[in-house]
Specification:
single chain; mainly alpha; Four Helix Bundle (Hemerythrin (Met), subunit A); 83% helix
Length: 129
Amino acid sequence: MTSMQAAALWVGLNIILLVYLSFRVGAARTRYKVNLGDGGNPEMVKAIRTHANYTEYAPAALLGLVLLASLGAGTLVIHCLGAVFLVARVCHLLGLGMGVWPTGRMVGILFTVLTLVATAGFLLYYALY
């Protein structure tokens, strides 16, 4: 597997997660009869914020993977960054979005930020050396 194929794998898996998060918002809108906004419903707020939070961080993380692959980063680097980011976002979903793991939100935030910082570090290394 090439680095670009590894990046494609993680981008593809993250697109599936994005579709799932989008579906959850749509299902909540139907369940709670809220067409626009959150309707003051705490469950709607959780579904919307889980989806929105993902869309705030995913573009930078996934673009970083593709750029790293194009700059010649190894497959192992791409897989590690991609896997940690995806697991972090699932932890965030379990914590905030589903409420089944209260510390999942904090774990998700921590590992999302660590992944972004590591990705930035690798990008700067490949850009400058």
